[in-house]
Amino acid sequence: MILYNEYIWRTFEEMETAALFFVDTQGIIQNINKGVTAILGYGASVLIGEEIEKLIPGEVKEIHKSMFRDYTQERAQHISRRSRIIGVQRNLPSQIDISGNGHRFTILGKDGREIPISLTIEEVWLDSEQLIGYVAIVLDNTEQYELRKTLLHRATHDPISGLINWQECIRRITETRKKYKDGEYYASILFLDVDHFSSITHPSQDLANYALQKIADWLLRSTRQNKARDRDIITSHFISDEFVIYLPKTSIEGAWTLAHRLKVDFGNLNLGTQANPRYASASIGISEFSNDMNLNYALSQASHACRLAKEKGKNKIRRAQDLDPGYINLVGSIRQAIAEKTLELYGQEIIAISPEGKKRDSGRAHYEVLLRAKDSQGKAIPTQEFISVGEKLGLSVLIDTYVIEHTLTFIAGNPDYNEYLSLCAINLSGQSISSDEMLPIIKRLILLGGVEPEKLCFEITETHQILDIEVAGRLVDELRAMGCKVAFDDFGIGYSNFQSFSRLSVDFIKIDGSYTQALLQDRALRADLEGMIKSAKARGLEIVCEFVEHENIAGVLLELGVDYVQGYLYGKPRPLHQLCAEFREVKLGN
Fold first, then answer.
1. Residue 141 near residue 17 (C-beta atoms within 8 A)
2. Residue 179 half-sphere exposure, CB side, CA atoms within 13 Å?
3. Which residues share a beta bridge with 187?
4. What DSSP character marks residue 320?
5. Other CB atoms closer than 10 Å to residue 178's CB: what's the count?
6. Helix, strand, or coil here: 254?
7. Is the dihedral of CA 426, 431, 436, 437 positive or negative?
8. Is the dihedral of CA 317, 321, 326, 327 positive or negative?
9. Which residue intervals of 413-460 are DSSP H helices?
10. What is the per-residue pLDDT for 589?
């Protein structure tokens, strides 16, 4: 039997894929296999006779020695004791909580490098029930650890700019706040928006991505102090060409000083190449942030201050304390309007101009649903402002659900109108289609509303970057499987572009109105428009153009192959009930 055990150990000694140690009860390494040399770089002559702490990082070396001694003494006396290491496989470098502190528990190679490992330790007992030591099996976990780091980085960082995304920003701010006691915490937030970004990077998406990377690198450099950036300063890519800088323990005055320097320096930042330089300016909003303040509230203050800076001529700085308090409380107005069902639904006709479009609609109603809102004083809130706040404060799903529910209720409540309905287009934000809860909501509302899915078209508005393309893909595929149509809205700008075709399957593209408005004056934009139309037609998609205000523009769009048009030439947005009444009068003779 002894000979048999010796052959087994000899086999283990030759193994190079796993490092094996035998450590006696004094913590002295008594034997190792060739895997120790392969993984750690140590030979037997160097390690045998050394304390096991030689392989343990300095921060836990003494703690390990003490714990090893205490555990061994108790086990030698047959005192039952549970260990967080012995008899349990650990995939390291995880943190082990020791005396209330988390410690990285890795192993040191001969070159001093900390090696991520998987570790298993078992006790060794003689038949006489004497504890003589421990056998440790170590596997090199570097490859898995690097993969984990890569996946984690992808989940927490924007793929274009390389900065942390907003979700990770929230997490880090929350962790930073925990460092301070109530009353001690204060911070400032900068909201930076690049002026004329789409103009200076048009029409190349590669140029836009390159510019965002340069801005991100510049921001990180610009927030360093004496070449050593405060670890608590957080720079995040919010959406599109917007960035958020979180400044802990920084007053409004201090934030203003930094914002002024950033604004001046940004004007000298070349967002293009040496051969083709491109420059822009930046508008910046500032808000303060305290421990009793909601983060989204503080962000909305900084965001709105930035918007006002842009409205005042761009390349300016605004402080949140200068804002209209009614806007600061807009989030309350949104929730109140949804709860009290006071948001108004409007509609604007979409007119078929191509033979294919006319055949599809056959003179039936085809329109887009639009949203109108008022604040607590009854004053109209600009739609873009309302939607923007909803996106930035995470209310998009709530808003979109309201629109879908009340649109379907209206259609179902007007059966004669429903009978002559060709297609009703409803907007979904990028935030909504990235949400797992949106698809079941839509399915439930369609089922309860009793409206044929074939009469619904969901327009994906990617003003807020799609956060989860897999969720969005499932939602789009499920909607189309039900019979609903799907369209890319604002196509040609923002996140809706040619790359969208490969990400999501749609039935329509709705080309942004900026192309339509400049169609007769800008040859370059017309060429881009023609390219989008040809690309869409090659994929069998139908095309809608917005902001059509003149007959001559409609004629050109028809020549280019556009199927549908929408704009003031055919009618301004009106309340849905008015649109329905007009249709009855014209089409139904009532």
1. no
2. 9
3. 248, 289
4. G
5. 8
6. helix
7. negative
8. positive
9. 415-419, 430-433, 438-449
10. 60
Question: If you search the block for the tokens 């390494």, which residue do you land on?
Answer: 29
Identity of the amino acid at 316: K
Rounded to the nearest 10 degrees, how much is the dihedral formed by the CA atoms of 496, 502, 506, 508? 50
Exposure string for 525-559, b = 16+ CB within 10 A, e = fewer = bbebbeebbeebeeeebbbbbbbbeeeebbebbee
DSSP state of 28: B
* One pLDDT digit (tens) per residue for the chain, 590 residues: 344 566 777 788 888 889 999 999 999 999 999 999 999 999 888 999 999 999 988 877 888 888 889 899 988 888 877 776 776 666 665 555 544 454 566 889 999 888 988 888 999 999 888 999 999 999 998 888 888 888 888 888 988 899 998 888 888 888 888 777 666 788 999 999 998 887 777 767 788 889 999 999 999 988 874 444 455 689 999 888 899 999 988 888 889 999 999 999 999 999 988 888 999 999 999 998 887 777 887 888 898 889 888 877 889 999 886 544 445 556 667 777 788 888 899 999 999 999 999 999 999 999 999 998 876 677 777 777 777 777 666 678 889 999 999 999 999 999 888 888 999 999 998 878 888 889 999 999 999 888 999 999 999 875 445 666 778 889 999 999 999 999 998 887 754 455 566 678 899 999 988 889 888 888 888 888 998 899 899 999 999 999 999 999 999 999 999 999 999 999 999 999 999 888 888 765 65
Burial of 437 (C-beta count, 10 Å sphere; 0-12/13-18/19+): exposed
For residue 383, give both structure tokens: 């739609």
CA distance 237 to 75: 54
In what helix (H) or strand (E) does residue 579 lie, and over which residues does it extend? Answer: helix 576-583
Asked if residue 415 has a cis previous peptide bond (ω within 30° of 0), the answer is no
Measured distance CA(512)–CA(496) in Å, rounded: 10
- State residue 345 phi and psi, 5-degree precision: -100, 125
Q: What are phi and psi of 306, to 5 degrees?
A: -65, -40
Which residue stretches of 341-428 are H helix? 355-361, 383-392, 396-412, 415-419
Half-sphere exposure of 224 (CA within 13 A, CB side): 7
pTM: 0.51
Nearest to 39, CA basis, from 120, 141, 144, 135: 141
Amino acid at site 121: I
3-state secondary structure 57-113: CHHHHHHHHHHHHHHHHHHHCCCCCCCCCECCCEECCCEEEECCEEEECCEECCCCC
Choose among 162, 160, 163, 242: nearest CA to 198. 242
Structure tokens at 440: 């079941």
DSSP 8-class letter at 322: G
CA distance 204 to 200: 10
Tokens 């969901």 belong to residue: 458
**4 Cβ contact list (under 8 Å, min separation 6):** none
Q: Would you state the structure tokens that stand for residue 132, as one six-digit string? A: 């003589």
Taking the C-alpha atoms of residue 120 and residue 21, their distance in angstroms, rounded to an integer, is 11
* Alpha-carbon dihedral 221, 225, 227, 232, rounded to 10 degrees: -80
